[in-house]
Amino acid sequence: MYYPEEIYPTAKGDKPDMMVYLDNLSWRAAGTLGYETPYLLENDTGPDDAVHSEYGVFSLYVPGMEESKRVEVSIYDFAPTVLSLFGIKKNLKGRVVYE
User: Fold this and answer.
1) Residue 87: exposure state from Cβ atoms within 10 A (0-12, 13-18, ≥19)
2) Mind listing the pLDDT tens digit for each residue in 6-18?
3) Closest Cα partner for 96 from 87, 15, 29, 48?
């Protein structure tokens, strides 16, 4: 169990009371009650199958793109990239990833 302020450099606004990290992402919380065990054998298991992972994927198509490319990005790059698509320029931590 982790509290957001323990693992993120800044925790602002409405944050979850706690975040549960089950067995190195091998299990996903099912959100059900009344079972004898916290694990459901019919539940998805594994970092990919349990619909979560330590790392995310951000896919973007911009009209006029001639070829695909793979780039390393940070969570901080998401907001500047999306805002830029709407013509909004802000001085934010992160970068626009399609330029």
Assistant:
1) exposed
2) 777 776 677 666 6
3) 87
Closest among 42, 36, 80, 43 to 58, alpha carbons compared: 80
For the chain, give every domain's residue range: 1-55, 58-99
pLDDT classification of 2: cutoffs 50, 70, 90: low
What pLDDT was estimated at residue 65? 83
What one-character DSSP code corresponds to residue 97? Answer: S
Residues 6 or more apart in contact with residue 17 via CB below 8 angstroms: 3
Distance between CA atoms of 64 and 82, rounded to whole angstroms?
16
Question: Rounded to 5 degrees, what are φ and ψ at 47?
Answer: -55, -35
